[in-house]
Amino acid sequence: MGFRSHPLPFLWPLAAAGAAGATSWDIFERNLRFFDKAIEDDHPPPPDWTTPNRVILELDSMRLRDFSGVGSGGVPVLIDAPYAGHSATIADFGPGQSLVATLLANGLGRVLVTDWKPATPEMRDFDIDTYLSEINVVVDDLGGRVALVGLCQGGWMSAMYAARFPGKVAALVLAGSPIDTHAGSGPIKRLAHGLGPDFYADMVAANGGLMPGRLMLSGWKSMHPERQYFQKYVDLYEHLDDADYVARAEHFARWYENALDLPGRYYLQAINDLFIDNRFARGEFVGLGRKLSLSEITCPAYLLAGTEDDITPAAQVFAARRLLGTPPEQITAQTVPGGHIGLFMGSGTLRNAWPDIAHWLTDRVRG
User: Fold this and answer.
1) Environment class of residue 277 by beta-carbon count within 10 Å: exposed (0-12), middle (13-18) or buried (19+)?
2) Global pTM?
3) pLDDT per residue as tens digits for the range 316-366
4) CB within 8 A of 38, min separation 6: which ones?
């Protein structure tokens, strides 16, 4: 084993000091193991799916993954995973941290996930209409009616779809979904308004019409720089002999560090039309040829927000209560402890909140 370059040079004094003052080979070897492990976690292989599934449809933008059991009936539950720079495996992250497995274990027999593809140069002009169209192909292939579970960005996309095709959506779950992007206060709102449209347009132009995942990842890390650029390495060093801790860190890194490129046109629409101009909440966004009004959505809705979610503040999610056309008595809103990612993969939320959502869905998808 030998020294290898590391993207964080300020950590080298840690190894040098340990080596210089080492009274045994164990200290020196520990430092080498730490640097190798830190490099592996910064450049991990891509994530895998946890629950058995099969691809039943492959489109330009996605693979539709079916987790259903044999002979599963009723209205399908389609999880619209976020297409915001990370893999759709967030919906099936790992044992004890799988939304898919939780829904299946709590009475839902037919569960599917939109597995969005990373953008290639040929996809640079894909826009929001492209993704709405492909969701529509999926829904029609599944029989023409689904219950949509939208996670984060997948929530506003699901709400757009429900507004455009209200008769095709039996129920709508919005989890950590920014519906009114001007509500509350959060870093994405501040960045979008502070940097302005020209900044994002220049980034897309400089990268051949794509928004690179590596740039988005840098932006997300900058929201919590102490944690992302220092503390996580200190924690790794302190827990280097804890095999469970190291395995968990590796598993999370496979999802977090492998950011996906996005089509530039789609990305700029999201920034400009949704986060800067808030056109969807205002009923001014045009999707597939029509202005989309949230008041057109009248199906039962379930809203889920995190108390410490600084990506999508609860106010942005719960704004749906006043914007949807769904009768108030058919809207359920719940706040759970924790941050954004924990809404979808946190073991506590999956154990305490999602079983209730699964039962709520079951009552609405029986066929």
Assistant:
1) middle
2) 0.87
3) 999 999 999 999 999 999 999 999 999 999 999 999 999 999 999 999 887
4) 6, 8, 11, 233, 236
